[in-house]
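**User:** Here is a favour to ask of a fellow structure person. Please take any protein you like and set down a full record of it. No explanation is needed for now; the record alone will do.

**Assistant:**
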Amino acid sequence: MKKLALLLTLTAPVAFAAEPALTIYNQGFAVVRDTLPIDLKAGLNNVSFGGATAKLEADSVILRDVAGKAALQILEQAYRNDPVSEPMLLSFFEGKSLDFIRRETNKPDQTITGKVIRSGYVPGGAPVQPIIEVDGKLQFSLPGQPIFPSLGDDNILKPTLSWKLNAAAAAKITAEVAYVTQGFSWQASYNLVAPEKGELVDFVGWITMNNDSGTGFKDAKIKLMAGDVNKVQPQQPRPMAMARGAMMADAMAAPVVTEKAFDEFHLYTLANPATLRDKETKQVEFVRATGVKAERIYVYDGAAIGGWRVGMNIGGNANYGVESNKKVNVYREFKNTEANKLGIPLPKGRVRFYSQDEDRQLEFVGENNIDHTPKNELVRLFIGDSFDLVGERKRTDFKSNEGNHVFDETYEIKVRNRKKEAVEIRVVEHLFRWTNWTITEKTQDFEKTNAQTIEFRVPLKPDEEKVVTYKVHYTW
């Protein structure tokens, strides 16, 4: 009886799928396309493919002869994801005896016979301690390495697809196997590096790919689909591990990633085949630009009014909207245009901002996320609050005449610049009491940014304070 054959097979290296192609979606799944040579005989054929992932969606599998040379009928398709393992094999022998090899230092190997009372294998759950009976005594561990007899051809070493095919005539074909699988993800991330002073930044974009599918892919042709593709999600989706690394690319080399519009989405293609091992995270650079203008914008939105919306019954509530804060928000804004050294569709992802100090050392100064952004669109990102800019907001008058459907309200806003350089602060005010309003008094001009919002732009010299006041008249 060939007891060692199975043991050696189980410890062999995991094979890669051969010459595959992947399209990875940024919603946590991928489409895999692979090739399968088949030598068909006329009549019934049994065919297997052992390069499938462990998270394959079985009802998505397509097997086809792309060249159309053979007339074949798929009678049956099966997917197995129960690769043989030592705990699983032990479960087959519960209540039976097995040989175990015990190895000790400076002693010859010893063969021990034990009865498997409990294997410890729990399908789909965490394993428990095995119980083995040796010489009439129970122990909660294996007495050595188990040696299993051959179990025939019904066991698999990795996830496997199999088919029963009916062929009209004998033929040799190269079939395509395609399927949807969970366990893949990709995301874009961006680094913006700014000098100590100025608005021109270096812009670098990375693509990070993750493979948690249970199968490795060698020299795969990889495409990345960006966009919100509608897909029915499982009730309990598996979480995808996210990680980051660091890679450098020659800015003068050919593009590592090319982009094109596809249907209602955008498709990014890696220029060279890449190996993506199971449990591996890999990065490639897909955009690099210098001299991108990313304006710094300061906004004081002093009204702490929370989830206000038009139509809320707050018109006559004299206390609503008087709370305020002192924080001046900092935003970075850039145009995704060719004139601004970009002009490419940017997949959604995290944007990190770095600034160089006087010694040209990089310091992290904030981050935020962008959504899928077409070219020629404006990107504005909140990155934090300013330390040296301060705002104050208070209401100085409120008069209500509900019988005549009239409210009058006056606010005073102070902004101070404690920096060493001049800045402009955009003072944002929300006119929340009603949709019909008129500014009857103001200390400076404003811009109406939407139906319920106005904005004052206040230039400030170093260590200067300015006061903005306005009166609003509501009618309904």
Remarks:
- Confidence is low (pLDDT under 50) at residues 1-18, 236-253.
- DSSP finds two helices and 29 strands in the chain.
- Residues 29-83+155-181 form one domain.
- The first helix runs from residue 4 to 10.
